[in-house]
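Hi V.,

You were right to ask for the full record rather than a summary. Here it is.
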Amino acid sequence: MTSLSPQSPVSGVSRIRVGSAPDSWGVWFPDDPAQVPWQRFLDEVAQSGYEWIELGPYGYLPTDPVLLTEETSKRGLKVSAGTVFTGLHHGEAVWEKTWAHVADNAVLAQAMGAKHLVVIPSFWRDDKSGEVLEPDTLTPEQWRNLTSLTERLGKEVRERYGLQIVVHPHADTHIDSEENVVRFLDGTDSDLVSLCLDTGHYAYCGGDSVKLIETYGERIGYLHLKQVDPEILADVRANQVPFGPAVARGVMCEPPTGVPALGPVLEAAQKLDVDLFAIVEQDMYPCEPDAPLPIAQRTRAFLRSCGA
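Predicted structure:
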């Protein structure tokens, strides 16, 4: 595994803007009867004390920026980012289809005043069924496709929409472990590609978020705050449980009951001397409709106790 060596300390203090996302309300899909209506999500995220949200799956929230601006503004909410899914390791053959998906999301994110687009790599096994879709490791050619096309995506998204892409390491994708995250960072231009560090996914895949922030701090453009239950995770790993079923088992848990400890993560992020969004994402699909609100309220109070 590639080792991480600490970078020089950086003076100054970051400004952390805390928010939440549809994911914390059990929302994984644009339309699903198991999910709460978008109006209820907006009501409850505001009630929980958050000011910032992500757009979630494209089509879950209204895609008309006039309507969405009206609905968010009257609740005191602002949008930090949109989210897109990509399979750029497949090469030029997927570029046009990928760009069409990205453009829809980028147009809405830009219209809502967001500055970021969270980019999630495609899964190598289906997150619902667990069906293996392709090998879990990339060939050298696929790595070249992934890095070069991600740079192209970063350049074009910035030039056309004024947004910064932040690539999200994710369980059951090819950017997951410390080894693969470091390989991806070392293979991409820091001016074009930043990272959305999801503390839960990185722990799920064996990584140390504080270590990554201290080593690659200049590449951390965005945070997702999340924890994993170590006991459930141990069983998930031992039995090679796919991510979707693992979430249904509760592998992503309410802070501060899991790992990593979020206080040290936020402390490390504060030392970067940059503005950062830290968006809470507790994967809970599927979940009872009354479950998210009290969890969100307790999580917001906990983060305040950590100084965020």
